[in-house]
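Consider the following input, taken from an annotated entry for Mitochondrial substrate carrier family protein W (Porphyridium purpureum).
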Amino acid sequence: MVGWSARGTTTATENRAVADARRLDARRRLYQLGSGAFAGLVNTIVLNPLDVIKTRLQVQERLVRNGAIRSQQVTSMAVVRSMYMHEGLRSFYRGLGAALCAFVPNWALYWYTYEELKGALTRLHRRNHARQLQSQPGPSDRGGASTSPFVHWIHMLSAVGAGTVTTVTTSPLWVVKTRMQVERLTPSSNAQPRYQGVLSSLRLIMKEEGVPALYKGLFPSLLGLVHVAIQFPLYEKLKTVILPQTDDEDANGVKASVRILLASSLSKVVATVAAYPHEVVRARLQVRESVSTNIFKEIPLALQLARQIYVREGARSLYAGLGANLMRTVPSCMLTFSCYEFARRRLEQHALAEHHVTKVSHRP
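Applying the prediction step yields:
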């Protein structure tokens, strides 16, 4: 009887441990979503004016043609002056609702998917690495799986996978955001805005242009995944080489904050310069109502548009608004990554503390 009692107690303890671990894992995933959403919210509210300026610079061809700015040399300051003089201060937050609806779920979904893919690929790599060590006995593992060059591929594949899921899911929101931000550039800019809210804009676009119109610019956006393929592996690497972490370091201290700020800003600059032309092509596709909504027709159209921009306007036009973009995206990236890392660490620490209390309370 004593044996059965002890065995029953052990089984109950193991079941509680498994249940607690599952609850902790579920909370961790929820915290990933919440941290990403929080980062997107702060990012959008603080930096939306620079996003509006960047988007308008990307469609500078229409700015000049419609007379919003008469100079062929469209600059960030010219756009700012024109917006302030013709539309007032509120124009700098034009499309804020759509931006919030785009950025918040975008970052929540992106960070969640990225962390999940990274964890799954890391576990798969470690299992394969362990099998190789068992099947090929010899000298001890040099550096282990965690330092393998394949880790960079894990970060790259996770970033591209998360970017693909996020891009396809949130594409309609980006189309609405872009339309709302550049609507005042049309000849009838004094008329009542047609795109006044996110839901009403979605319905209007679907009614007049069909559902595929909500995915205009999808191909250039997917092509732009080269951006995250560069940024995230570089970010993860820089975090390990900039001010290397010590055992007695506070994870949320000054050193950790500086590490995240430097790693996020440097990786963002490199990735933006490498992948920026696709953003110009995407923005112009999204504001052209006559553009084909078939993604297979959009592929050659996007390539043709890129060639036209290069031939007619010069290579510099493929980097139109790069200065404003960097002014926005570098602080944006620093803010977003810092908010995400801080929120995630705090929430996970809170969850681990509660988990520890629960384990202590369950002890016989």
